[in-house]
Design goal:
Oligomer: single chain
Mean pLDDT: 86
Strand content: 15-25%
Order of helices and strands: HEEEHH
Strand order of the largest sheet: 1-2-3
Shape: globular
Low-confidence stretches: none
Helix content: 25-40%
Number of helices: 3
């Protein structure tokens, strides 16, 4: 499975784990060569767009992924052999403050 697809499955697992207030906000890198994504609380999603983060660049505390990193999601280390559920659990452990904003408001 390719890394971006696996990341989408990680977000699905976050929702299954009742972190429905977290969203995947994808976008292209300025060069157009890489796919980037952030996992953000729903209130950071642009109401005009529906899937775009209001913070398109690195912003303190917002986990940002680039497809140039392969399976190294959000500085969790290489997790190529991990299941999406295992990666979701690592994400929650690494980003506890963000995970507390789990509920849809």
């Amino acid at each position: 499975m390719n890394p971006p697809r696996k990341l989408m499955l990680v977000v699905r697992e976050l929702h299954v784990m009742e972190y429905e207030g977290l969203r995947l906000a994808p976008y292209l890198a300025p060069s157009g060569m890489y796919w980037r994504a952030q996992i953000v609380p729903v209130e950071y999603i642009s109401p005009k767009h529906g899937a775009r983060s209001i913070y398109l660049s690195r912003h303190s505390g917002i986990p940002t992924y680039t497809s140039g990193n392969g399976y190294n999601y959000f500085e969790l280390g290489t997790v190529e052999s991990d299941t999406p559920q295992q990666i979701a659990e690592k994400f929650i452990a690494r980003f506890q403050e963000l995970a507390q904003r789990r509920q849809v408001r």
